[in-house]
Specification:
Elements: E1 7-14, E2 20-26, E3 31-33, E4 47-49
Antiparallel strand pairs: 1-2, 1-4, 2-3
Bound molecules: zinc ion.
């Protein structure tokens, strides 16, 4: 059974500046904030999942 890439909605916090974003987590574990480009507005792209 092949599954297309599933995304789940999570809340994530930027490791650098602490901003919290509603984000989507891809099936490979990547967390991407929704509503901003790929990275946080501070320029960092590392997020910790909160929810
Ligand atoms: Zn940030």
């Amino acid at each position: 059974m092949s599954k297309s890439q599933s995304k789940s909605k999570v809340v994530a916090k930027c490791r650098s500046c602490g901003s919290v974003f509603v984000s989507e987590q891809l099936s490979d574990g990547t967390i991407r904030p929704i509503g901003v480009s790929a990275d946080c507005t501070c320029g960092d792209g590392a997020f910790d999942r909160l929810s």
